[in-house]
Design goal:
It is found in: Cytoplasm. InterPro entries: HPF/YfiA_ribosome-assoc, HPF_long/plastid, RHF-like, RHF/RaiA, Ribosom_S30AE_C, Ribosom_S30AE_C_sf. Belongs to the HPF/YfiA ribosome-associated protein family. Long HPF subfamily. Keywords: Coiled coil, Cytoplasm, Translation regulation. The chain is α+β, with helices and mostly antiparallel strands. It folds into two domains: 100 residues, 2-Layer Sandwich (Double Stranded RNA Binding Domain); 84 residues, 2-Layer Sandwich (SHC Adaptor Protein). 31% of the residues lie in helices and 35% in strands. It is built from four helices and nine strands; from the N terminus they run βαβββααββαβββ. The strands form two sheets. The chain has a five-stranded mixed β-sheet. A hairpin with a 5-residue loop joins β8 and β9. It is globular, with a radius of gyration of 19 Å. About 15% of the residues have low confidence.
Length: 199
């Protein structure tokens, strides 16, 4: 697994890099022997240290987790614990899926995708957030990236959304081929939008 450890306005020393490499490799290899790459970023959030972990476990499986503490090692350990919990849940769901219908291999490799665009709205570093363009009144699009619309069941979509620590995921429903959306509601439950074109 290729690992990148970085610090934003923090000097990440050799001891911390070594600790991150050993612990992350131990934690991820329990669930994925062949993880592709991982990024660990440290930063300050007021008086707290923040650690963000992003692991590309396999093609189409991206997991994100974060932690905060007044000690940098504790922030990393919190993020790693959350990451391991997500990976454990993912493996359990795949195992349950295999028991239920014998298609675990299909669930792991069901990444037929259609190109799509995702728009990321974010503020520049250390600049105030501009919610609208002053001339048009529309939200400001800061960056755009390519992404893929995966062909998934609803359960698989929820699993991908959890792993990526996203609030919503657009996917192509395997049952009927239409576009669907799952999202995390304010009450903590998962919402599912299954639009149908009227006849």
């Amino acid at each position: 697994m290729q690992l990148t450890v970085s610090g934003k306005q923090i000097d990440v020393g050799d001891a911390l890099r070594s600790h991150v490499a050993e612990e992350l490799d131990r934690g991820v290899s329990k669930y994925f022997d062949d993880a592709i790459d991982a990024q660990v970023a440290f930063g300050r959030d007021a008086h707290l240290f923040r650690c963000d972990i992003s692991v590309h476990a396999r093609r189409g499986v991206m997991m994100k987790a974060s932690g905060q503490s007044d000690e940098i090692y504790v922030a990393f350990d919190q993020a790693l614990n959350r990451a391991e919990k997500q990976l454990r849940r993912y493996k359990r769901r795949l195992r349950d899926h295999h028991r239920n219908d014998g298609r675990a291999e299909a669930a792991q490799n069901s990444f037929a995708s259609i190109p799509a665009r995702a728009y990321v709205l974010a503020a520049e570093e250390d600049e105030p957030v501009e919610r609208e363009d002053a001339t048009t009144g529309h939200p400001v699009v800061i960056a755009e990236t390519d992404t893929a619309i995966l062909s998934l069941t609803v359960g698989e979509a929820v699993m991908h959304m959890d792993l990526a620590d996203q609030s919503a995921l657009l996917f192509r429903n395997k049952a009927h081929g239409g576009l669907n959306l799952v999202y995390r509601r304010d009450d903590g439950n998962i919402g599912w939008v299954d639009p149908r074109i009227p006849d």
